[in-house]
Specification:
Cofactor: [4Fe-4S] cluster; Mg(2+)
Number of domains: 2
Oligomer: single chain
Strand order of the largest sheet: 3-2-4-1-10-9-11
Number of strands: 23
Structural class: alpha+beta
EC number: 2.4.2.14
Distance between the termini: 15 Å
Pfam family, one: GATase_6
CATH superfamily of the largest domain: Aminohydrolase, N-terminal nucleophile (Ntn) domain
Number of helices: 19
Radius of gyration: 23 Å
Catalytic activity: 5-phospho-beta-D-ribosylamine + L-glutamate + diphosphate = 5-phospho-alpha-D-ribose 1-diphosphate + L-glutamine + H2O
Helix content: 25-40%
Bound molecules: adenosine monophosphate
GO molecular function, one term: 4 iron, 4 sulfur cluster binding
Largest sheet: 7 strands, antiparallel
CATH topology of the largest domain: Glutamine Phosphoribosylpyrophosphate, subunit 1, domain 1
Length: about 475
C-alpha cells in the first residue's frame, strides 16, 4: 500500500502536494517524498517517516515549479530504506522522469532478472524501479509512448504517476485494483489515490481514472488513452473494508457508507443478544455503527486508541505488557463493565489483535465478549500491495472458525459471508458488469482467486 498525489499547473504545486500527502498518510507511514518540476528543472525531497517529520517549511519552499508528484510509502516489496523511498527520479534519452507508484507488480522479479541479465544495474530493491528501466529502454523520445509500451510488460496492480519535463501522466492497471481519482482545482488538474486529499486542498472530484486508462495532463489540458484494450475491473475490496479513509469515495461508493452497510449485513447474518456494541478504532467504527443500528443495541465507545503513537514508539517489554501497560488501545471500563459486549473488527489476519482486545475487554469487566468480523475470513495472501503476509501466517488459512474463536478467547465468533460482502456492492456491481462483463472487485484474499496471473518466482518474493 502507498498513497500517490499529483498536480499540474499550480504555482503552489509542492505545498498543495504536502497537504494532500498529509491526507493520505494512513496509506503509508514509512517514507514520504515530493518531486516538483520547474519548466523541466526537477527538485526533490524525501525521507523516512511521517510527512510531518520529513518536510519542513524551507524544504517545501525549495520545491519550485508548477507541477509536482508526491508519495507516502508502506513497504510490501523492497526493504524500508531511503533508497526505496519514492518518487523515484531518473534521466534517460527522453529527458527527466519522476515516478510514484501505489500497488505491487506480480512479475517484477521475473522482469528484473531478465533486465539484470542484459546488463541493467538497479539502485533500489523496489518493484517500481523495474518500470523505470522498462521506460528508459523503450527507446521513444516521447515519454507517454515509452510509458505505454513498458506498461504492456508489467503485470499486477498499479496506480502510477509520472512527471515528465512538460507533462503529468497518470495510469491505472487494467483491473483498476488500486484506486486513483482525477480532480480539478481552479486551473489545475490533480490526481490522487483517494478523494479525501481533494477535500483537504479544496479541489473538486471529476471522476475516477478508469482501469487500463492513461491520462496525460499538459499545457493543452487533458487527454485520455487506453493502455489496455480489455479492461476487466477488479477493484480491491480491502480498500473499502480496512485501508481507505471513511471520507473517501472509491468508484462512486463512500467508504464509510460501505462499511456501515457491511456492519448491518453482519447483524442480519450473525445476531446475538448483548448490551453494547463497540468497534476497534479507527477502521471498524463505521461497521460497528451499522451493526448496532441494525441490531438495535446501543453503540458505545468501548475502546479508545491513542493517536499519538508514531514510528518511534518503543514497544513495551513483555514484563510491562503483562502488567497491563496499554499505550495503543485501552478499554473504557465504565462502558463495558458488567455488560455483554459485541466487539466488531473489520478483519482478522494473524489473530493477534482480536485476542488482545478480547482479554482487555474481559479484564475491564465485560461479562461476555462476542466478536463479529465485517469481512469474510482472510485465507489467502494479497499479491497486489496489501500486507496481509504469507498463507501460513493467516490464521483462517489453517484453522476453523471454532478454532479461531478458541484462539482469541471469545464467547462467540462470526464473520460476514462472502455473499453478504458482495451483496453490499451489488448496485455498483451491476453497473460495472454491464460495462466490462466482469466481476467488478478483487476478493483474492478471501477466495484465492486473483484477477491476474502471478508468476511462481514472484509469488515467493512477494510472500515475506
Ligand atoms: P491481526 O492482529 O494480524 O489479526 O490483524 C487484524 C487487525 O489489523 C485488524 O484490527 C485490522 O483492522 C488490522 N489490519 C487488517 N489488515 C491490515 C494490514 N494490511 N495492515 C495493518 N493492519 C491491518
Amino acid at each position: 500500500m502507498c498513497g500517490v498525489f499529483g498536480i499540474y499547473n499550480n504555482s503552489k504545486a509542492a505545498q498543495l502536494t504536502y497537504y494532500a500527502l498529509y491526507a493520505l498518510q494512513h496509506r503509508g507511514q514509512e517514507s514520504a517524498g515530493i518531486i516538483s518540476s520547474n519548466e523541466g528543472k526537477f527538485h526533490h525531497h524525501k525521507g523516512l517517516g511521517l510527512v510531518a517529520d520529513v518536510f519542513k517549511e524551507e524544504q517545501i519552499a525549495s520545491l519550485e515549479g508548477k507541477a509536482a508528484i508526491g508519495h507516502v510509502r508502506y513497504s510490501t516489496t523492497g526493504a524500508n530504506s531511503l533508497q526505496n523511498a519514492q518518487p523515484l527520479f531518473f534521466k534517460y534519452q527522453g529527458g527527466n522522469l519522476a515516478l510514484a507508484h501505489n500497488g505491487n507488480l506480480v512479475n517484477a522479479h521475473q522482469l528484473r532478472s531478465h533486465l539484470e541479465r542484459q546488463g541493467s544495474i538497479f539502485q533500489t530493491t523496489s518493484d517500481t524501479e523495474v518500470a523505470a528501466h522498462l521506460i528508459a529502454r523503450a527507446g521513444y523520445e516521447n515519454s507517454e509512448q515509452s510509458v505505454k509500451e513498458s506498461l504492456g510488460m508489467i503485470k499486477g496492480s498499479y496506480a502510477m504517476l509520472f512527471l515528465a519535463d512538460n507533462k503529468l501522466i497518470a495510469v491505472r492497471d487494467p483491473n483498476g485494483i488500486r484506486p486513483l481519482s482525477l480532480g480539478k482545482l481552479n486551473g489545475s488538474f490533480v490526481v490522487s489515490s483517494e478523494t479525501c486529499a481533494f477535500d483537504t486542498i479544496g479541489a473538486t472530484f471529476l471522476r475516477d481514472v478508469e482501469p487500463g486508462e492513461m491520462i496525460i495532463i499538459d499545457q493543452d489540458g487533458i487527454r485520455s488513452e487506453r493502455v489496455s484494450s480489455y479492461p476487466t475491473q477488479a477493484t480491491c475490496v480491502f480498500e473499502y473494508i480496512y485501508f481507505a479513509r471513511p471520507d473517501s469515495d472509491i468508484e462512486g461508493l463512500n467508504v464509510h457508507t460501505v462499511r456501515k452497510q457491511l456492519g448491518k449485513r453482519l447483524a442480519q447474518e450473525a445476531p446475538i443478544e448483548a448490551d453494547v456494541v463497540t468497534g476497534v478504532p479507527d477502521s471498524s467504527i463505521s461497521a460497528a455503527i451499522g451493526y448496532a443500528e441494525e441490531a438495535n443495541i446501543p453503540y458505545e465507545l468501548g475502546l479508545i486508541k491513542n493517536r499519538y503513537i508514531g514510528r518511534t514508539f518503543i514497544q513495551p517489554s513483555q514484563e510491562l505488557r503483562e502488567r497491563g501497560v496499554r499505550l495503543k488501545l485501552n478499554a473504557v471500563r465504565k462502558v463495558v463493565a458488567g455488560k455483554r459486549v459485541v466487539m466488531i473488527d473489520d478483519s482478522i489476519v494473524r489473530g493477534t489483535t482480536s485476542g488482545r482486545i478480547v482479554s482487555m475487554l474481559r479484564e475491564a469487566g465485560a461479562t461476555e465478549v462476542h466478536v463479529r468480523i465485517s469481512s469474510p475470513p482472510v485465507t489467502h495472501p494479497c499479491y497486489y500491495g496489501i500486507d496481509t503476509s504469507a498463507k501460513e501466517e493467516l490464521i483462517a488459512s489453517s484453522k476453523s472458525i471454532e478454532e479461531i474463536r478458541e484462539h482469541i478467547g471469545a464467547d462467540t465468533l462470526a464473520y460476514l459471508s462472502t455473499e453478504g460482502m458482495l451483496d453490499t456492492f451489488k448496485d455498483r456491481l451491476g453497473a460495472i458488469s454491464e460495462a466490462t462483463q466482469c466481476c467488478g472487485y478483487c476478493e483474492g484474499c478471501f477466495s484465492g482467486s486473483y484477477p491476474t496471473e502471478i508468476i511462481e518466482q514472484d509469488k515467493h518474493s512477494l510472500e515475506r
